[in-house]
Automatic annotation (TrEMBL):
SUPFAM superfamilies: DNase I-like. Its cofactor is Mg(2+); Mn(2+). Residues 6-256 form the Endonuclease/exonuclease/phosphatase domain. The keyword Nucleotide-binding does not apply. The keyword Metal-binding applies. It comes from Ilumatobacter coccineus (strain NBRC 103263 / KCTC 29153 / YM16-304). One of its GO terms (biological process) is double-strand break repair. This is Endonuclease/exonuclease/phosphatase domain-containing protein. InterPro entries: Endo/exonu/phosph_ase_sf, Endo/exonuclease/phosphatase, TDP2-like. Pfam families: Exo_endo_phos (PF03372). The lineage of its organism: Bacteria, Bacillati, Actinomycetota, Acidimicrobiia, Acidimicrobiales.
Amino acid sequence: MSLRVMTWNLWWHFGPWEQRRPLIVDEIRSVDPDVLCLQEVWSDETTDDAARLAEALGMHMVRSDPVFWNGQSFGNAILSRWPLTRIADDPLPNVDGEPGHRRVVAARVDTPFGPWPFAATHLDYPADASATRQVQMRFVMEQAATWRGEPLDDFPVVIGADMNAVPDSDEIRMATGLRPGVDGIAFGDAWEQAGDGSTGATWLRDNPYSRDSAWPNRRLDYLLVSWPRPKPTGNPIRCWTVGSRSADDPLWPSDHLAVVADLVTP
């Protein structure tokens, strides 16, 4: 048996967001994930896109506490077909270690296989902010070590994230154990283990919302599974991207593609 997890940056309320919303719902329905990690979730004082999505999809939901400016917020959420309980909602540090406005939210999902921890986060975006992302990645890893229980017996932590970093960056190499990180925990990259053979890019120049970007095609979004873990639970057996359209289509669901993976269950 397997569990399907999906992560997606929804691009807040940028661009033609009213036209994008039904495309997002339809794409998620077509994937039918068991657990969905979201970034750039919009809300204001009365409306919450995460709650709206959960209602449309018939899923349970937790989200990061809104951080408002000009009456609107920018956050992360976790949706699940099963009940879930929020276990953490923490600000990510800036490069100086002080709390920033970005956050990581974690939840324990009551899957049929047992309680399983998931998290959603979104690291800082500037191309020259690797030092900040490294501080944030270390913080996420330290927190994840407290969410997973007994590493060799309990379920691994699954993180869905827009890391704003490519696979050979120092911050991703830290997460995957290729450079010094946090003792006792590292993460497997679902795409690296079970990608569908494409580049896995989630930021595409074909996308009309990123066509004028200075960045080339890049893989910025990840599904990560903590290690060590009880074999083979959490091993990805398939990983793919969704959310693309033809290059001449002016309406895409988001400026990022989503990443989906099927993970081995006990």
